[in-house]
Write a structure and sequence with these properties.
Shape: elongated
Number of strands: 0
Largest sheet: none
Distance between the termini: 16 Å
Structural class: mainly alpha
Strand content: under 5%
Radius of gyration: 17 Å
Helix content: over 70%
Order of helices and strands: HHH
Number of helices: 3
Amino acid sequence: MTDTLDPILLNFLYAVVGGLLTLFFMWLGCKMFSHIVSFNIADELAKGNLAVGVMIMGIFVGIGVALGLVIGLGLN
């Protein structure tokens, strides 16, 4: 099937699907972590708790890098 599709279109499709997967897994990771900790993440962020903000940033960066590597290596 990949022989019939233009490589540019195929790479664009990989990028779109990868972006959607990344957003989904970031949302899922934040929801799962929110059930593990004993505080409400949204309330703590509203209070200006920088530690919670950095923690959420770390989750998003980690998941983004992991999925980016998987998708990037899948293009070979």
